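Handout, section B. The chain below has 380 residues.
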Amino acid sequence: MRYLIDSKDRLVSLNEEWVAFATTNSGQGVAAESDVIGRRIWDFFSSEELKSVYRWIFQKVRKTEQPFSLPFRCDSPSMRRMMSLEVEHQGNGYLAITTRLDQSISRSPLSLLDVNASRTAESIDICSMCRRVNLGHNHWVEAEDIIHLPEISRTGRFPSFNERVCHDCSSQVEDLPYMVSLSGNVDKGEESPLIVFLHGETQGDNLFRLQAPPRLVSSHKLLDLPPFILLSVLKHKPGPWDIEKVMTALRETLDLYAIDRRRIYITGISSGGMAVWKLITQYPDVFAAAVPVAANANVYMSSPAAGIKPPVWATLGGADPVVREKTFLNGMKLLKLNRWDVKWTIFDGQNHDCWTATYLNQDIWEWLFAQKKANPASLI
């Protein structure tokens, strides 16, 4: 199957195999070439995380003019299909995308994957790339492995799917700059709050294993909060965060999604928390509030431009061997003297990993979503 997209990611041509495959595999709204040409390719994605992966692949191929290949699965109820994707630059921002069937393995029909199967109100994550299912705690298994679960065996009905990208698949895309996820029933026609998340040193490859926003969103643990968009920025090399790369990711996300610019929040852990302090100092008019976790503020306590000081709730583990409590408290007191709207929580007995306690604290989440800027953020 082969198709061509222009510099605006609009489909401009495709071969007969594309339409045939789409209609055979329950492609909605696809009956002929005319149903597809002129539409943006993103209309055919159901996973925001998968969009993040593909957008980066497209950007990389356009920038380097080098082809990019990626394995993926496209299963049917009775067939495992191992496929490969190749993206090639065609000039002027045009890309040719080719998908090939590398191997197919027959199996007994799996009703779980039948789009017409009866579904319960429950949902379960399925990886858009490898088609494995998340049993919880980022334990991904083949779809066949869950049909014998008691709740499925008892009712004969299946949970609905949430399309996501598992860690193993996202790690195949080298230098992926960020991932976008949706928490709750985000209405794409209305503006939603945005949370920017910055992980700690060496944690980029374990993003969904941390008890932090990416994992909490993936496991649907924040559904009692207002629906929001999560931007998880990734750092692949040791050393300080590149603040401009974070801002680039933020600008791109603002261009792609309907974001309430009065409600852009930022949080980060350890080195990511230090980057939070730096960002709200350098770009104080962008963020409505911040939650830096396990990070000292001292090095970034110069007064923000125009006297703007976003409200902050900082947290620390009382037994943190990296950030000392005395140093942390001195920083908080100095911020108070400089008229920052800052509050803090020290979790007794917690070590450097106080993010688990922080992100499971309902008071912190409710405080964060209550913050709203008077004027929308403007990014140059």
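Note. The chain has ten helices and 16 strands. Compare this with the example in section A.
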